[in-house]
Write a structure and sequence with these properties.
Blueprint lengths: L6 H12 L2 E2 H10 L10 H13 L3 E7 L7 E6 L1 H16 L7 H7 L6 H31 L8 H25 L12
Antiparallel strand pairs: 1-3, 2-3
Pfam family, one: PadR
Organism: Kribbella speibonae
Protein name: PadR family transcriptional regulator
């Protein structure tokens, strides 16, 4: 069923839609293309995902090779069922909003437990971190554009940049509101 495809499984199927490859090659390509900014990918989790997709008949092994002293590497290809599952998941993932539960809104909702000066300090540190991420994304996007990679292939990067920029700007405004006392900050007393 398409709904059970994880973000990493979607990425694996999409790579195999391009061409058959082995799992380590998939990992290297995801990192090279900066997809590790969009999908949490580790070699172990990638191998596990490929094995699960093979059990679901979404991918199949096409051969095993060994180069020198390296371990054997199994090459996989996308099956018609995998192609259909990928298409369905992309379609539903685009059109249906799914509420996700990231950590930041949770800790932000509890920031009132900090003194206002401490909260502002930590917000400023987060802004600096966000600016580093935005700079890295800008460099990657500029590189893709310079290599004339069609924008449709890096649209996820522009979306991520927009999200990070909006968060940075919101935090900057929140700091201004705290410092101007427009946002009344009253830390809870600990019992």
């Amino acid at each position: 069923m398409a709904a059970e495809l994880t973000p990493l499984a979607i990425s694996v199927l999409a790579l195999l839609k391009e061409e058959p490859m082995h799992a380590y090659e998939m990992y290297q390509l995801l990192v090279k293309r900066h997809h590790h900014w969009l999908v949490k990918v580790r070699p172990g989790s990638l191998y596990h995902t490929v094995e699960r997709l093979a059990r679901q008949n979404y991918v199949r092994a096409t051969g095993t090779e060994r180069a020198g002293n390296r371990p054997e590497r199994t090459t996989y290809e996308l099956t018609p069922e995998g192609d259909a599952a990928l298409t369905r998941r992309v379609e539903t993932g685009i059109e249906e909003y799914v509420h996700e539960y990231p950590l930041f809104p949770v800790v932000l909702s509890e920031a009132h437990n900090l003194e206002p000066e401490d909260a502002v300090l930590r917000f400023r540190r987060r802004i600096a971190d966000l600016e580093n991420w935005i700079r890295e994304i800008d460099e990657a996007l500029a590189d893709a554009e310079a290599r004339e990679v069609p924008q449709v292939y890096w649209i996820g990067g522009t979306y991520l940049r927009t999200q990070l920029t909006a968060e940075r700007d919101w935090l900057a405004t929140t700091i201004e509101r705290i410092e101007s006392k427009d946002l009344e900050w009253q830390p809870r007393n600990n019992p």
